[in-house]
Structure formats: structure tokens, C-alpha cells
Write a structure and sequence with these properties.
48% of the residues lie in helices and 17% in strands. By secondary structure, the chain is an alpha/beta fold. The chain has one domain: TIM Barrel. Helix 2 packs parallel to helix 4, helix 7 runs parallel beside helix 8 and helix 10 packs antiparallel against helix 12. The structure holds 1,3-dihydroxyacetonephosphate (13P).
């Protein structure tokens, strides 16, 4: 079922667990994530960055693939198809293409401009019953060419954006996309606590889920995080399993070069990663 992320995130916030957003790159990724969510009876959010959207031949291709797959695979758990770190234009395009959720990342604009643009998109999203994620304080690291410095958000600015009526709010709390450096200072729980106190019921989003230790994830959930984004970890798992297959010479045995065989270990590795995360986030059985 393709749905807005609103209800699943409000339930998660009230129930003190988090729904995983797993980014997709192609058919195998999408299939692996949907099948795992169904198997574990968990709600799920499929994330699509602007770069991945382009790679998959445009947002309409993605929306049609996801809708058809939900239908063909009999996926009955709630699934949101979500634009990740969207530009203002990208968000409009995804809404038109049939996405059920979009993120507008206005964190690099001055706060007044972030507010003005977010406000316009809130009106549009409400009209169409689509969920909208906004961001305050850039997330560090590099993702698809979008580079952020790892800011810590100002809780007062978070409240200003939350009050516009967005569905969920991403706030920088020292988190970084991609692998964490050895000297990483960790998440700023004081900031997260202050943001949650000011924003109340608002589901908070933790980006950069790859490599955050399990204890920090649990603490973040206890302080109001109800959506956690994971991308790099699935990519690493896929690449590792594929490399092992090739290094073992399996592509040279029989029809081992057949893409359906060649990509199978990587696809299974994505499933295992998604399962591990859903268990950690507490979303298993919450569909
Ligand atoms: P990672 O690639 O670090 O898991 O971050 C994913 C993310 O935050 C997508 O927006």
C-alpha cells in the first residue's frame, strides 16, 4: 500500500520506535526492501535522492515501478515513496509524479527563505495528502553531490519550521552521511532533547543512519526520533557480497554470469541489512 508517511510516523513517535527510510537505486534494491518489510510486517519508507531519481530514468519511472511492485508482490504493509533531500523544484516534480512523501531540504538557505519555501510546500502537500519533511541545520558529509558540514540545529529554528505544519522534521545533531570518521564526536543528545521539548509531538528524523552505534540509535529514539535514514550501509553490504561472489569465481561457473545470479548475493545482503535495522529501530510487527 503506497501511503503518506504521516500516520506511520505519528504511530512510531507515540509508540517509541522508528520507521526506517532505506534509499533505493534500482529494481533489486526496491524488491529487497519491500519483501523484507512485508516479511517482518513493518512499515517502511523508500528514499529516492535526486541523483538516484535521475539514474532510474526519472521520478515517473520510479513511482510507476514502486506502485507496480507493491501490486505484483502483494505488499500490504504501509509503504511511503519519499524524495530524499529534495530541492524546491525536485519536490514539485515528485509530487506531480505520484510520490506519497517528499523532503524539502532548505537547510542551506537563510532561515527566512527556508520558512517561505517550506510553507508553500506544506500547503501543496496538505492539499494532496502527501507527507512533507523539512530540514534545519545541514547534515554533514556528502550525499549525491550535496555536501553539508554537520551543523547542530538551533532548536528555536526547528520550532519555527515545525510550526508551519510539516509532517516530520530533520535536524542536524552532529550526524553525518556516509561512514563516520574515527574522531566523530557522536550525536548531540542535548540538542535533540531541546528540539523535542520545543516541537512536542513532531516526529523527528535522524539522517546518516549508517554506522551510528546501536546504543545511540536507541537513545535517539527515546528522545523523539521516529524516522531513521539508512543508505550507505545497504550499498556497502551489496558491494561486499558482490565482490565475494566474483572473487570466488562464481560468475565463471556455469551460468553464474547471469545477472539474476550475479546480483542475488548483493540483494540478499540488502535484505539482511534492512532486517537488522528494522529490528534495532523496533518497527517489526508495527505495520
Ligand atoms: P547514510 O548513507 O549515512 O546511511 O545516510 C542516509 C541518509 O541520511 C539519507 O538521507
Amino acid at each position: 500500500m503506497l501511503v503518506s508517511a504521516k500516520e506511520m510516523l505519528q504511530k512510531a513517535k507515540a509508540g517509541k520506535y522508528a520507521v526506517g527510510q532505506f534509499n533505493i537505486n534500482n529494481l533489486e534494491w526496491t524488491k529487497a526492501i519491500l519483501l523484507t518489510a512485508q516479511e517482518l510486517n513493518s512499515p517502511v519508507i523508500l528514499g529516492v535522492s535526486e541523483g538516484a531519481g535521475k539514474y532510474m530514468c526519472g521520478y515517473t519511472t520510479v513511482a510507476n515501478m514502486v506502485k507496480a511492485m507493491i501490486n505484483e508482490l502483494n505488499i500490504t504493509v504501509p509503504v511511503a515513496l519519499h524524495l530524499d533531500h529534495g530541492s524546491y523544484e525536485g519536490a514539485q516534480k515528485c509530487i506531480a509524479a505520484g510520490f506519497s512523501s517528499v523532503m524539502f531540504d532548505g537547510s542551506h538557505y537563510p532561515i527566512e527563505e527556508n520558512i517561505a519555501k517550506t510553507k508553500e510546500l506544506v500547503a501543496k502537500a496538505n492539499e494532496l495528502n502527501i507527507s512533507l519533511e523539512a530540514e534545519v541545520g545541514a547534515i554533514g558529509g556528502e550525499e549525491d553531490g550535496v555536501v553539508g558540514n554537520g551543523e547542530v540545529a538551533d532548536p528555536k529554528e526547528c520550532k519555527m519550521i515545525a510550526d508551519l505544519g510539516v509532517t516530520m522534521l530533520a535536524a542536524g545533531i552532529g550526524n553525518i552521511h556516509g561512514k563516520y570518521p574515527a574522531n566523530w564526536a557522536g550525536l548531540s543528545f542535548d540538542t535533540l532533547d531541546a528540539i523535542q521539548q520545543l516541537t512536542g509531538d513532531m516526529p523527528l528524523v535522524l539522517h546518516g543512519g549508517t554506522g551510528i552505534p546501536a546504543e545511540m540509535i536507541k537513545k535517539a529514539i527515546s528522545l523523539g526520533v521516529s524516522k531513521i535514514n539508512v543508505n550507505t550501509e545497504c550499498q556497502l553490504a551489496f558491494a561486499d557480497a558482490t565482490r565475494k561472489y566474483i572473487e570466488a569465481g562464481k560468475d565463471l561457473e556455469g551460468k553464474g554470469f547471469d545477472p539474476r545470479k550475479l546480483l542475488a548475493p548483493g540483494t540478499e545482503a540488502i535484505k539482511a541489512t534492512v532486517k537488522e535495522k528494522m529490528e534495532l529501530f523496533g518497527s517489526v510487527g508495527k505495520a
